[in-house]
Amino acid sequence: MVIRKGYTLMEMMVVVGIMGIVVLSAPKLFTGVYRFTQLAIARAEIQKNARGAISNINRGLRQAQADSIVIDQLSGMPPHSRITFTRYKPDGSTETVSYYQNGKILYISSGGAGGKKAADNLRYIAFTYPKTDAAYILSISLTFEKATYEGGAKALQMAVEKVRIMN
User: Fold this and answer.
1) What is the C-alpha to C-alpha distance for residues 59 and 93, in angstroms, rounded to an integer?
2) DSSP SS3 for 122
3) What is the pTM of this model?
4) How far apart, in whole angstroms, are the C-alpha atoms of residue 48 and residue 91?
5) CB crowding 83-98: b at 16 or more within 10 Å, else e
6) Rounded to an integer, what distance in angstroms lies between the CA atom of residue 16 and that of residue 22?
7) 121, 46 in Cβ contact below 8 A?
8) Contact (Cβ atoms closer than 8 angstroms) between residue 50 and residue 62
9) What single-letter DSSP state applies at residue 72?
10) Which residue, among 143, 135, 139, has the nearest Cα to 167 in the 3D structure?
11) d(Cα 128, Cα 68) in Å, to the nearest integer?
12) How many of the other CB atoms lie within 10 Å of CB of 99?
């Protein structure tokens, strides 16, 4: 009885074939994982921005004086992308507040001071009146967008209708 040590040519070819399949599929797997990760990160960031912005605007508009609301836009920005209103401060005085889009950034300006960044990655914002006979109800529409991979982007559109102005 002769005991042979080593591998046959057939066994070596099977191993080389299996390794070839693994090596060829690994880049696709890594690319898929990378794309999934980039999309998940973009989704989380724009959801965070959108929720924070809509909450901030909603809170501010509830304190607005209905007869002081002006909806317009900055030069070169989309229509209805700025809202300016007067609200009461805790001491009884009033201040002017603006929410507006400038490029891809949402700004808030209060008391005549310069704008402070409220959110970034903003694609579009619009303030409108859903009914012409109700000056105390507003509709807000926001779209945020974040770049992902290979020139692609993930967008999230949020709309809040019927923000009731309390004053």
Assistant:
1) 18
2) strand
3) 0.74
4) 32
5) bbbbbeeeeeeeeebb
6) 10
7) yes
8) no
9) E
10) 135
11) 15
12) 24
Query: Coil, strand or helix: which one is 13?
Result: helix
Show the tokens assigned to 74.
């900055």
Sequence-separated (6 or more) residues with CB below 8 Å from residue 85: 61, 64, 65, 68, 69, 70, 96, 97, 98
Do 80 and 62 meet the contact criterion of CB atoms below 8 Å apart? no
Q: Count CB-CB contacts under 10 A for residue 4.
A: 6
Collapsing DSSP to helix, strand or coil, 166 comes out as: coil
- pLDDT tens-digit profile, the chain (167 residues): 677 778 888 889 999 999 999 888 888 888 888 888 888 888 888 888 888 888 888 888 888 888 888 889 888 888 898 999 888 888 888 889 999 999 889 999 887 677 888 888 888 889 888 776 777 788 888 888 888 877 777 777 776 767 777 66
**Number of helical H runs and strand E runs in the chain:** 1, 8
Let me know how long the chain is.
167
d(C-alpha 149, C-alpha 153), whole Å: 7
Q: Are 111 and 95 in contact (CB under 8 A)?
A: yes
